[in-house]
C-alpha cells in the first residue's frame, strides 16, 4: 500500500509544521489540488516580479534603475526574505495600477501578475469560494463547468487561442465579423478585422450584438 506524506504549516503561534500521513483518501486529493493551485499562484506572482524588474531594474544599457527599484535594492532585510520581496514588488505593481482611493484601474497598465484573471483569483474578497462551490455541484451541467474552466484558464477555443497554439497557422481574426462585414460590403483587409478573444465574443463582436442585448436583459 502506498502511503502519502506531506507537511502543513502550523495554525498555532508556535510555528511548528505538522506532518500528515495517509493512504489514498480525499485528504490526499485535496492536498494535491491545493498544491497545484499554489504552484500556479507562484508562477503568476513570478511573472509579475519579472515585469517589475524589467520596468524598474533594466539590464545594463537598457535604461536606468528607478527610484523605487533603488530603494528596494538598498533594503537588505527584504532581499534576504523571498516572501517579503515578492510581497513588496506585488504591492508596488498594485499601487501603480490603483487610484488614490485604492480602487483598481483595470486595463490601464496591464495586469499586476501574469493575467487579469490571475489578479482576480489572487485578490481577496472576489468570491473564489462561491466559484469553487459551484464547480462542485453535481446539478451543474458538465458542459457549463468545462466552459467556466476554459474561460478562467484562457483556453476557451477562440481564434486568438487557436492562432497561438498552432503557431500562427490559423487566423486570429473573428469569423463572425468577417462574415458580417462581407455581407455589408465593408470588408477590405484581414488585418482590419478584430481579434477574436473571449472579451471580443462577450462584449464587442458586432455580429453578436443581438445576443449580447438578450443576455443583458436576462441577467
User: Spans with pLDDT under 50 lasting ≥5 residues?
Assistant: none
Overall mean pLDDT: 85
Number of strands: 2
Give the overall silhouette: globular
Number of helices: 11
Find the structural class using helix and strand composition: mainly alpha
The proportion of residues in beta strands is under 5%
Order of helices and strands: EEHHHHHHHHHHH
| End-to-end C-alpha gap | 51 Å
Q: How many separate structural domains?
A: 3
**Biggest sheet overview:** 2 strands, antiparallel
Rg measurement, Å: 23 Å
Side by side, the strands of the main sheet go: 1-2
Q: Provide the helix percentage.
A: 40-55%
Structure description:
It is globular, with a radius of gyration of 23 Å. The chain has three domains: 1-123, no CATH class; 124-155, no CATH class; 157-219, no CATH class. The protein contains eleven helices and two strands, in the order ββααααααααααα. It has helices at residues 26-56, 67-73, 76-79, 82-96, 116-122, 128-136, 142-152, 159-165, 175-183, 198-204, 209-217, and strands spanning 4-8, 18-22. With 219 residues, it is mainly alpha-helical. Helix content is 53%, strand content 5%. Strands 1-2 form a two-stranded antiparallel sheet.
Amino acid at each position: 500500500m502506498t502511503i502519502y506524506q506531506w507537511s502543513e504549516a502550523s495554525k498555532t503561534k508556535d510555528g511548528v509544521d505538522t506532518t500528515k500521513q495517509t493512504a489514498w483518501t480525499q485528504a490526499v486529493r485535496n492536498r494535491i489540488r491545493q498544491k497545484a493551485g499554489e504552484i500556479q499562484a507562484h508562477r503568476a506572482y513570478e511573472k509579475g516580479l519579472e515585469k517589475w524588474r524589467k520596468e524598474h531594474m533594466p539590464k545594463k544599457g537598457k535604461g536606468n534603475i528607478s527610484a523605487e527599484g533603488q530603494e528596494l535594492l538598498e533594503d537588505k532585510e527584504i532581499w534576504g526574505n523571498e516572501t517579503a520581496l515578492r510581497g513588496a514588488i506585488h504591492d508596488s505593481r498594485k499601487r501603480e495600477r490603483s487610484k488614490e482611493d485604492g480602487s483598481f484601474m483595470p486595463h490601464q497598465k496591464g495586469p499586476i501578475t501574469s493575467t487579469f484573471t490571475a489578479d482576480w483569483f489572487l485578490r481577496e474578497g472576489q468570491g473564489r469560494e462561491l466559484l469553487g462551490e459551484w464547480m462542485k455541484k453535481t446539478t451543474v451541467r458538465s458542459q457549463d463547468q468545462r466552459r467556466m474552466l476554459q474561460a478562467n484558464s484562457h483556453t476557451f477555443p477562440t481564434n486568438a487561442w487557436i492562432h497561438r497554439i498552432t503557431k500562427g497557422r490559423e487566423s486570429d481574426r473573428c469569423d463572425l465579423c468577417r462574415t458580417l462585414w462581407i455581407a455589408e460590403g465593408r470588408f477590405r483587409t484581414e488585418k482590419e478585422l478584430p481579434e477574436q478573444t473571449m472579451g471580443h465574443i462577450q462584449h464587442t463582436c458586432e455580429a453578436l450584438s443581438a445576443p449580447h442585448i438578450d443576455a443583458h436583459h436576462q441577467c
